Amino acid sequence: MTMPPVRVVLFARFPIPGRVKTRLLPVLDADAAAALHAHLVEQTLAMMRASGLPFEVHTTGASPAQFAQWLGSDVPFVDQGDGDLGDRMGRVIPPAIIIGADIPDLRVDHLHAAAAAVAAGRIAIGPAKDGGYYLIGLPHRAEFLFDEMPWGTDRVLTETLARLGEQAIAPVLLPELADLDRPEDLARWPQLTARRSPFALIGAMPLPPAKFGDPDRTATGAARAQVSQTALRTLWLNTGTLCNLTCANCYIASSPTNDRLAYLTLADARAFFDEIAAAKLPTGEIGFTGGEPFMNPDIIAMLEDALVRGFAVLVLTNAMKPMRRHEAALMRLSEAHGDRLKLRVSLDHPTEAVHDAERGRGSWQTALDGLRWLANNGIAVAVAGRHPPDTTDRDLRDGYRALFAREGIALDADDPAALVLFPEMDATADVAEITTDCWTILGKDPDDLMCATSRMVIRRKGAAAPRVVACTLLPDDPQFDLGATLAEASASVALNHPHCARFCVLGGASCAAG
Known about the structure:
7-stranded mixed sheet
């Protein structure tokens, strides 16, 4: 008789604050503990999907409809039923692999190893460092492993192995892993308790280490896509990584203390403006980004120099106190140069709660006040937002449309230049590599990517001179450092980074004014 397929069964509790991860409450508040639990469940489910094995989620704490709204309607849900953990595990019909969601280091290969053991008719055990086990694979029923077990103690694994020994059963032992259950466990995975961005990718698998390692070939051996510079249309100046905010997920980790990219000076900017003029480059736009550009002491002088030379100028700003200190200068520049000066305000979401979850309490209202001041004083503005997971472009634009109408801000929410919605970036999450065949498969033109028409100037802390990098997203990766001059930086760019794939090619995004 053929054994049915081995299923992975995840035991999951609904993330209600105060009812999950309660052992962590001495160091985390109830909401943070629930958010951590939810993240671990989502991460584990994503790994189960990636395994290719059939799976179920056995639930407690909420209705199947609530779980479906959280984890997806395509997930098979089964109620765990009453009783202690042993009673509930005993109801799982073999062949099955039973896991929980408190093992951050659990990987697909662990599931495959357990599935192979179970398919061969053997019991699989994944020992946990705390004396329990994180996985049990059962080819047949084994209620004797669950009855009157001292659950929650460091004796579970020892007792389980003893009972198997009494039955002359030798289990397949998987690698020992640590679980996340007690306050002291948090130090092992500090990234899990960092402030979580509301825009973080949900259920993303970790990026395999073989990807984005070779500038010429993908992990599968296919020819990696490259982008040639067609013309330098936009030159970005990174004014430095110092910022008045510390966001939950900033792609260059700007903060009030991070000065790894130093302030550019007026002399730095002029040298590149002069190179543009001498080489008769077709550059029409100068972009200023950071950090917060208005923290740079030379920002107004750099803006004015660029405007006087005839460039259009785009400044990316959070429109908070650093910008407001320069109100008089901005009004003067706007009056002299009109719409050639534009400020794009980072208002991450049309609602205060989501924006503040990313940028800090009170930041939404302060940024909105700054945006309103710019608009009321006739200074050209645009808004940059970010896509939360599971939110459509239409819903997001509708939310901004209502906000603009309520605040009397004359921006068209359907104009992608007036309201730029950026895809989220996470260099640690898996994403497809872009091959030369992708241009045809995806219907994309490499000439439309940022690196075909733009470059960015940076000055690293302690460096003698600025450098030119391929784009705004990658100031730190050495392979995208193209030279000391714009001429040196005109080389082709290999799309050898997750941001190239997720943000530029698949996300279709660009930092320029459009």
